[in-house]
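Input set for joint prediction.
Command: fold jointly, output tokens.
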Amino acid sequence: MAKTQVDDINRSIYNIKNEDNYSFKMKKGLDESIVRQISKMKNEPKWMLECRLKGLEMFNKLDMPTWGPDLSCLNMDDISTYVRPKSNLNSSWNDVPEEIKNTFDLLGIPEAEKKSLAGVGAQYDSEVVYHSLQEDLLKKGVIYTDFETAVREHEEIVKEYFMKCVPAEDHKFVALHYAVWSGGSFVYVPKGVDVEIPLQSYFRLNSPESGQFEHTLIIVDEGANLHFIEGCSAPKYNKVNLHAGCVELFVKENARLRYSTIENWSKNMLNLNTKKVMVEKNGVIEWVTGSFGSRISMLYPMSILKGENAKMEYTGISFAGEGQNLDTGLKVVHGAKNTASVVSSKSISKSGGIATFRSNVIVAPEADGSKSNISCESLMLDDWSVSDTIPVSNIQTDDVEFSHEAKIGKISDEAIFYLMSRGLSEEEAKAMIVRGFASPISKELPVEYAAEMNNLINLELEGAIG
Amino acid sequence: MDNLLEIKNLHVSAGEKEILKGLNLKIYKGEVHVIMGPNGAGKSTLANVILNNPEYTRTSGDVFFEGDNINDLRTDERAKKGIFMSFQSPEEIPGISVQNFIKSAKVAVDGKPVRIFEYKKKLEQTMSDLNMNKEYSSRDLNVGFSGGEKKKNEILQMLMLEPKLAILDETDSGLDVDAIKTVSKGINMYHNNNNGVLIITHGTKILENLKVDYVHILVDGQIIKTSDGNLAKEIEKNGYESYKEVK
Amino acid sequence: MKKMVVLNETPRRTSKSFGINNIKIENFELPELKDFSNVNIETEVNIENTVHEFKPKFSIGEVLVNQIKDQANKKLYINIDKDIKKPIVIDFELDETQNTLVDNIVIRAEEGKKGTIILKYRTKNDDVQAFHNGVCNVKAKANADIKVIILNLLNQKSENYYSMNNKLEENANLEYVIADFGGSKTVTNYYSSLIGNTSNNTVNTMYLGKEQQLLDLNYIAEVYGKKANIDIEVYGALKDNAIKHFKGTIDFKTGCKKAVGNENEYCMLLSKKAKSKALPMLLCSEDDVQGNHSNSAGKIDEDKLYYIMTRGISKKEAQKLIVKAKFNNILNKIEDETLKNELIEIIDRKLDY
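tokens >
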């Protein structure tokens, strides 16, 4: 049977479309009146409107990137920026409309809930429709809410941190994000609180030509600990879809945050997301990232290690299949003494897919005693795919240990022969090797809590064997 | 009737170079065969070509297994028929544990699911018979194993998969005396009247505790002498020089 | 007229803010050119003074390429049509009167021919303000075996722009040994096209930066041939306020089955204010290859320094010893003992405070 050796993820079960059943849709394009309208509808305070207008100003001012994947397929006039679902916020699962529930069912959200997840914030189009948080977390003072509620009910703290990590000037798409953001999550973990169970959030796009611009703001206060999981999946549509979310993270002294992402946008998505963290003294940020979907991704989580002994770990994998151009990687700034970064990145490309790894490591003059270790491994599954590694380092002090290494290659014939000599077919042998290659990331994911992510990885592997 | 492996006038080349030049060999159930020969004679090529390593090309001749011509079978199909090879330098496969790997292989060759409990028990028992530390079962396949550990892991796979014919390609090379004893022990545990063993070796240490039926001398791509177990001792004493001259 | 020029563009762009896509030279001005005759040539083969125009695929920059094309004041065409026993040595010395050199060198190695070419660029003393813009083109025909040693020994006041363009045919072997020591600005562009199957290109570079020196190295190898091999090893040390940018690209093209590419850069930082940027790219559109790269930067291992100092050697001397030890593999590729010792002397002098 001429089945491809390692199949694409079987996306069919994610490609369920609900009827386009929105209550309100913005007129196409983007001008100031749209931005004002969004703000007005959300009953936002004035400062938030000002943030939006600042975003709009920068969006109109900034150029498209002069590097990376070709984005000429993107026409902003085609993208209505804001789609409001019929149901408003629900506090109980029973109140969620049946149709939306069905989609979530298929995504496994209720299953995850049954497994006593700490909280589920699922974004349906642009508004959060379902949200829950376990009571013991409430007692500990943890705030976990959708972003609109946060602006309303925790205005002071949101105002203090919003736009402080990622400025609107960063690039064109984050500027766009600030102009039209809608939905997202807000988490505050008070001093010394250890959130033992991972907090989970699902994002999903479900309307043709709608962009998704959710904002995530997480503050892990001194000595606190949090694991946040972000999973994305979208039904398939023919027209170009744009995702320009923004994640702002603050890790305070002695705090620790693990931010895990499994991204499985459907293959028409342009995923131009921005993620950044500020890490204070002795703080730790851990990025765990799996990029499987989207047509084009540009995603480079950035870590600013601004306090002494701050640490960053990055474990990531991307899988670029047919028609995909996944441009991923990271940036890190060592801005204080004895900061450390450890990066392990893997990529797989097949069926003409393009996987590019980019990194930029900056060691500032004041970052004496810092260490940075980057390792990249790329697996090519055929000779018409592409795998590029583009790592930049910028070392501005002598008291540093910096090293980078990268490897590119295919699965060795010898390894396939070895496995086949034990009775495995060539397809099984290759799949097993790919699974092994990806295992450092799957080990990092709490799959027992994340039903959809578990699904994704299993589908990938079963698709390979089945 | 109990013919296990039969090789007829086999010619094999690697790239441009012909390595096996008309080799004949018959192995019946219950037998232990040994192939000895100088470096470059084609010993490992023989083992690899029986499993259809794509690096080698069979240019003419036939390989039969249990009376069926297996010339056109893929490597995995041959393994499923019951042929096993212990590799000279086993591949390292990161991310796949020994335990899961052997289980997948077992399912593949048996064509039915394994009973997890029985499987685990047998794996543990076999590992202990081979003086292998239990923690190796959860380590990545051959990754970071010493030479000796890799070879023991090959014998472990042989014992778990229970093939009809086991080909041991220089499994003893580079091992210390104790490890060789363990390997011999493993072969004895495996061998019975219903299966066959083909040992490719340079030394005779591995043969000490085994009942060897035939020793073949392979020089320049052909078997030029076949005799009983005593031939191995003679070779160890006198080397291959006299046989090279014969040719 | 003084203007800003942009040189050494990388084959793939990164974000502008990373500051490594190219090097911008402010207040750049092409000098008036005079005749250049301060060159000493030792050779067994006939060297002609005309060359054909060259069209590099990745060039150092248009303004410099055009200067060479239109105004070169030294053109040398070396045809290696027989095996050469003694290396060809071409020794350029720039002084107060002849302080501008624009040289265009073409080396054509015929099938199966062997030879070594040494190109030396020196300034007569530390005060000469020299300008050097040169190119070395090597065409290695099938089975040719060529070694090129390029020594940039200009003083700290000079500007040095240098290009190397190479084409390797079937089974050709081309070895480069490069010492980039001199120049207030040194911009080096290296391009190799490994067209031939089983062609082999090795590049061993050592660089040294001190004071306000700026080094921008842009190495690009495109691999087309099956079983072709490219090895790029770059070792360097920076002291004072020196700045180095290393950009290395190995590009495996579809069809270069079983090709192997290795790229390794190692930068020793001998001062707090020295700065090192690196971008070692691996581009790959063929699966059946092995590509590896690594780069590292940091100061000299304290334990090593301490060990040497316990033997009674001063810290400064110990540092020099370790830097030279790192360069040793590359130095050993220079067979000529006199030349090697000359280089060691220069390294010692450059590392003196």
